Amino acid sequence: MKKNSHFVVPDSIAAADLIEKIQLHFKTAVASTETYKGCYYDTFDWRLSRCGLSLYWQQGGLCLFEINESEEIASMPCSANKQPDVLKSMAAGPLRERLAPVIDMRTLLPLANPHIIKQQIHVLNRDMKIIVRLHLKTFHLNQKSADPFLTTLHVEPLRGYQKEAKKCIDLALFLGLTPSDKSSISTSIHTAFGHKPCSYSTKLDHLTLTAKQTASTAALSIFQSQLAVMKQNEHGILADIDTEFLHDFRVALRRTRAGLSEIKGIFSEDVTKRFKTDLKRLGTMTNRLRDLDVYLLMKDYYKSLLPDQLQPELEHLFKLLEKERAREQRKVQKAINSSSYRDVISAWEDFLTTFQLKKDAHGPNAQRPIKKLAKTFILKTWKKVELMGRAISKKSPDEKLHDLRLQCKKLRYLLEFFASLFPEAEMRYLVKQLKKLQENLGDFNDLCVQQETLHEYLEIQVKVNSSPINIAAAIGGLIANLNRKQQEVRAVFDTTFKQFDQPKNRDLFQTLFNK
Amino acid sequence: MKTIAVYSIKGGVGKTATSVNLSYLAAREGFSSLICDLDPQGSASYYFRVRADKKFNQKKLLKGGKTIDKNIKATDFQNLDILPSDLSYRHLDVSLGGYKKAKKKLKDILTPLQDEYDYVFLDCPPNITLISENVFRAADSILVPCIPTTLSIRTLGQLIKFFKMKDLSLKKITAFFSMVESRKRMHQDNIIKIHDNKKITCFLESKIPYLAEVEKMGLTREPVAHTSPKSIASMAYESLWKEAKKK
Fold it and tell me: Which CATH class for the A215-513 domain?
């Protein structure tokens, strides 16, 4: 039906000149001029931009637009001083429904606050009827900056007057305006405020290694990319913006530690040992906080496992967890602000930048070509996974699955580190196969840990606090349900592993990684 | 979608002013609204400064579907569209007669618009003809402006009689006093007589006074509720809309 058109006005044409030029061709009236402070949102990892969405506040409400589509998808009235920075505080409605699955547990951050001057111009016919609405906006970095960093024109066609709108669009093109869409406009705005949409990623996709580069340069670029992720997430952990800052920090840390132990012989043994110990400490200090985050994120899921009448009893458990989380958060904050943390990070950073000069810190593999080494590492780890997995029977103790899970993690990191050295499609396929196995093992492990935690909680409630019987019933019910799920997960391990260990995959590992 | 017809057998009772202002008020409240100008005189279209495309005529209207869709136009107001009238509508009656289900034709034409609009207002031509019968069947509510004069009230009686004869639902009919002149003794007496008569229940409380502001709509070419939202006329239409939308 309606099709809107957006244009970027070149810097050489000032807004006032543009209006004059339009008036030469059409009868117009400037209907209104408004100035306001806009606000453009996204999550720290650019979830909206990645999905081609743009969310912003302008006078009167929040609007959500889709990439290349100029039609608004959803909007919500909301006053200037009540811009909801968290999805949680957003009222139910189509906007929330559309945003929630995209943003998930992340927080919306107000990233750019341009000062906007908006003029509405009506194009009129002989009856002085409005036939097209033009919206001319100039974006300024702040109220004081006279020159806009961006000027846009939006031609809003009205029903039944498409031909007239087409004439306005033709004129815009004739005057040298650049057709654009909402999303690229929001990208320009983010850029003006010093952000680079979609620049942040924890994935190793952007890492490109070459077959002949030395193992040390390859390892350094892997470590440096992960160190950068850790540093980028520090502020979010300190400000407790959402749970994913810590999560990303920990993933990067884990990758670094896995790299230290699995990309063998790059650094001297002393150095490797030293950083392994130091970095492990950083991981340990955040373990409990992450566990608590996971429990709290699963609140609704836990509730769904219980019958309606027992659900309220869980509130007490979650209140305790929230309290503990607040304490843990303070601990982690303190730790990140401490000099010992700073020392570890800067020592690691210095080491990575000066490594090439310090010959005594080099390990035996440092100068070897990376591809050959990568093949050896991957093949070895894969063989271990294969042997461990095949040894697991229905009667094997839980620990065996736990060990296999850790081994799979190592293999996964190696595949990701060195993905760029091997054919893309094959690597993606193998990671996908491994991921399925990891999911099964991960679920199994999570269910084990959760039951243990609930047992501990139950003990305290019954023995120490002699809590009402309903709480015990709720926790008991939860444990029983989790246990049943654990059995289900365990039951499909066999087929999941066989799927991973199928001849096709074995052959692929051999062809790719056997010298 | 709720279809409200503004109808009267008698002409010059304020039908168009009513449908223009009520549709504007509905749109202002955020309801997606459409006003169908069924009167060949095209007064509603004139008030909204909209002309039908040259190719549009009564035959196109009767085609319905996409043809109608193409001829709906945006007014100058958010949420409010109009299907403008054409002089050829004067032949609508004759053309309708040629259809098999002649009495239900308008209802069928409007059905596809159901998802798009919350309210459809029908600005009807005066008279009682085949097109009127179409309106009675298509509308959920029939709003009848009535000047407090003997003749005007008499036509309301004729309408009721017609409904009974055709076995149409009398519940659809809602009347209100229009162009009320407080200085005229007869107007006052007639209003009291109607309101005191317990048998007559179809009249709303709200009354639209006879006001120059409403007549000025011919010059401003805008709903009075938009030109002077604080005026007596605007208030009167607001109160009428409040009551009418509940019917």
Answer: mainly alpha
